[in-house]
Amino acid sequence: MAIKKRSHSFTIARRIVQFGMLLLFAAPLLVVGAGLFGIPSGGEKIDTTASMLPFFGSLSSSSILGITLLDPFAVLQEAAAAKTFTLGWLIGLLPILLFYGLIRGRTFCGWSCPVNLLLEAIDWLRAKFNLKVVEHALPRHTKLWVAVGVLVLSAITSKLVFEMFNPISAINKGILFGSITGLVTLLAIVVLELFWAHRIWCRALCPLGGFYEAVGSVGLLSVKMDYDACTHCGHCSAVCLADPEILDPVLNGSKKRVVAGDCMLCGECVDVCPTKALSIGFASPFPK
Ligand code: SF4
Ligand code: SF4
User: Fold this and answer.
1) Same domain, 225 and 207
2) Does the C-beta of 240 come closer than 6 Å to ligand 2?
3) Contact residues of ligand 1, CB 6 A cut-off
4) Is residue 16 domain-resident?
5) Which of 198, 214, 230 is the last residue of a domain?
6) Which burial class, exposed, middle or buried, applies to 272 when counting CB atoms under 10 A from its CB (0-12, 13-18, 19+)?
7) pLDDT tens for the chain, residues 1 to 288
8) Is residue 287 situated within a structural domain?
């Protein structure tokens, strides 16, 4: 039975950000007249290209007012593949790393990643049609090792290994260039969701999630717990997008805040808690 939420504040805020991000990356091509499938409108010559606009790019690499922003994990793959590291890469990745590092690493997953949006839609459909999934869960830290494996393979093959099947790039390429090849990756993730385990990609397999889990060990914002207000109903664990076990330390009273680098700050636990025992706020950036 679906758990009734006390509030929808965080879900609404996240949907605005998630759809806003999708629109942001689609807007440049729409502005210059190229459609979602990369076909110039009316076959006319395009005088302005998307790359000439103030914002252009994808979650892997973008340009704002001429400043290049780079996905830190893509840069690590590039560095491993090329066996070199440039100052330009460092300048490009630092704003992104600092932004998510200061808030909390996996905020990227909960608020920016389009794959999470897709998987939440699948969750919603599954609940609506009462579709059960056989759960063959993997330990949540598996994705850390997948991330390490991707970097090692990038070094061995001199190729950006994750970028070959990265579903986020797939969505971005679909929006920007009309490419449908990445749909295979997305389809594979949906199949995993339906026949392997609930949220298996985000929880245990995505190497980008593994990278941001490592970054998320520190951060200024956390889910905080008022232990006296908790009735131990378990609703927060049931709706957690990351992994129910990350709430265990606050539920058993051994921690006052969720310390796991896996927390996406999605706020689903806060929205569902009937007694307002949970909140998101500033806390010491280092786990105690
Ligand atoms: S924190 Fe809230 S939702 Fe979680 S067990 Fe306690 S009362 Fe229930
Ligand atoms: S602990 Fe709460 S905020 Fe963190 S991922 Fe789970 S549901 Fe989201």
Assistant:
1) no
2) yes
3) 230-236, 251, 272-273, 275, 277-278
4) yes
5) 214
6) buried
7) 678 899 999 999 999 999 998 887 776 666 655 544 444 445 455 455 555 666 666 677 777 777 888 899 999 999 999 999 999 899 989 999 999 999 999 999 999 998 999 999 998 888 888 888 778 889 999 999 999 999 999 999 999 999 888 888 776 666 666 666 667 888 888 888 888 888 999 999 999 999 999 998 889 999 999 999 999 999 999 999 999 999 999 999 999 999 999 999 999 999 999 999 999 999 876 655
8) no
